[in-house]
Amino acid sequence: MSVRPSPAFGQALIEALPKLRRYATGLCGQSALADDLVQDCIERALLRAGQLETLERIGAWLRTIVYNLYIDELRRRRARGTGVDVEDIANDIAFSTPPSDGTALAELARATARLSPEHRQILVLAGVEAMPYRDIADELGVPIGTVMSRLARARAALRTLLEGDTSPVVSRA
Amino acid sequence: MTGRPHDFADEDLSAFIDGELEAGRARLLERALHADPALAARIDAFAADRQNLAALYAPIAEAPIPDDWRTRIEAATAPESVSAPAQTAQQAGWQAGLLRDAPARTSHRRPPVWRRRPALGLALAACLAVLAVATRLRPNTPATDPILTEAAAARRDLTPPHIRLTGLALADESARDATLRQATGLAVRAPNLAAQHFHLVELETYTNSAALRYRSDTGQSLTLYVRPSAGPPRFDLLRDGAIRTCIWQDEVVGAVMMGDMTAGQMMRVASAAYLELNL
Questions:
Q1: CB B230 within 8 A of CB B92
Q2: Which domain holds residue A152?
Q3: Of these four, A143, A154, B76, B112, which has the most CB atoms within 10 Å of its CB?
Q4: Residue A86: pLDDT band by 50, 70, 90 thresholds?
Q5: Domain ranges, ordered by start, for chain B
Q6: Do A8 and A78 fall into the same domain?
Q7: pLDDT given at position B234
Q8: pLDDT of A166
Q9: Which of A13, A19, A155 sits opposite B46 (nearest CB)?
């Protein structure tokens, strides 16, 4: 018999959703897919609430679930031979941003979509979620030096794309 | 980075804009920036990208979350009431004529048609796909369909279960299937859908019915709701957004399968469940 999740867990989960949705969107680049990932994450979190040791770590726990769900989705799409059109991503994100500087942001969205999921993940954690490197290292289960080098490679790859080099920077996982 | 009169790498620049570079090295970098325009341009670009990424995604966290997410979580985590919900479910069961009929169905019901005539059962299973093609996909699920309403409530955890089995409690097949039979009053078992890549993760029982939740290796969820038949034989394949619903009912069993999948996948899984469900 599983333990029914507590109301406190439910409240913490609800409060975490706006940022989780932002993280998911940054990770996959598509608002519709991001919402699907978050919705699946909610189901998985409710089913596995007992695995969360402390509510203080719910944000990291949920992000890990979303990332794993996203990798599963990418594998499923690869198996089906379907992918995501980078132009669709740029348009999708551009529609959700203010009109000012929309072109530049669309370029950024397009370039980010060409990065590997691993690079997008660390760019979002450091640049959007503004997490300290120590916390990122703990969440990803890697040394802090790996966080620094991976983040630097992600930023360099993004620069290369934004400066007009359209050759593949990294393979998309 | 190469070709510059210093030894600062992208790793240093990246850590610097995040405020994570060690203090002594950060001071050296600040001095180098004054003397090296290319280095300054590189770090400015990194900083601008960081700022633009934050601006790109910031509005998403400001938007309200969908109501159904909140409703789903609140329903699943609300304090359990021992008496009131159970009474409501019981009353609902009586209103549907299910509880009244349950003992009679258990002790006097005829065997399922596919047990009396196995060949017909196999043929029915094989024909599910054909039936699905012949059945028009309906864009919206009818709100007044009782079995569908019950199944949807079970899938969304809106109905408090009497028993919930997960994890190791599901591993004991005989105990698990006994729980399922006791709840539904039907000679059924939890279908093994491993060949379809779905694994049972939860069994919930309600008054005279049960919901079986499955997960695929890739995270797809599937709910199979089972109860005694409450109407004429039927077969329906419905669609509501990404959720496909397959309803089948004979003179003994009524079942609803719901999941986020294609019509073809739904038919394959439903056919397997149809054959596996009955003892």
A1: no
A2: 115-164
A3: A154
A4: low
A5: 10-62, 68-277
A6: yes
A7: 80
A8: 56
A9: A155
State residue A93's pLDDT score. 52
Helix, strand, coil % over all residues of chain A, rounded to 5 = 75, 0, 25
Verify whether the Cβ–Cβ distance B60 to A21 is below 8 Å: yes
> Which residue of chain B comes nearest to A38, CA vs CA?
B69
Is the pLDDT at A156 greater than 70? The verdict is yes
Among the candidates A63, A83, A103, a domain finishes at A83
Q: Do residue A75 and residue A125 come from a single domain?
A: no
Give A 52-81 residues with CB within 8 A of chain B.
69, 72-73, 75-76
- The pLDDT tens digits for A6-54 are 999 999 999 999 999 999 999 998 888 899 999 999 999 999 999 998 9
What's the CA gap between B276 and B173, in Å, rounded? 14
Residue-level length of chain B: 279
Q: Are residues A23 and A70 in the same domain?
A: yes
Look up the pTM and report it: 0.55
With a CB-CB cutoff of 8 Å, which residues 141-170 of chain A face chain B?
148-149, 151-153, 155-156, 158-159, 162
pLDDT in tens, B127-181: 444 444 433 334 334 446 888 888 888 888 888 889 988 888 888 888 899 999 9
A127: nearest Cα among A50, A26, A15: A26
Nearest to residue B110, comparing CAs of B255, B252, B253, B264?
Answer: B252
Q: Cβ contacts of residue A140 below 8 Å, gap of 6+?
A: A121, A122, A146, A147
Are residues A76 and A10 part of one domain? yes
* Interface residue of A3, A4, A35, A135 to substitute, partner B, most B CBs within 10 Å: A4
Which ipTM did the prediction report? Answer: 0.86
Residue A11 lies inside a defined structural domain of this protein:
yes
Q: Report the candidate in B14, B30, B17 with the shortest Cα–Cα distance to residue A156.
A: B14
CATH number at residue A135: 1.10.10.10
The type of residue at A154 is A
B86 vs B235, which has greater pLDDT? B235
Sign of the alpha-carbon dihedral angle for B142, B144, B150, B152? positive
Rounded to whole angstroms, the Cα distance separating B247 from B253 reads 11
Rounded to whole angstroms, the Cα distance separating A160 from B47 reads 15
Q: How far is CA B202 from CA A10, A28, B176, B215, in A?
A: 19, 29, 10, 9
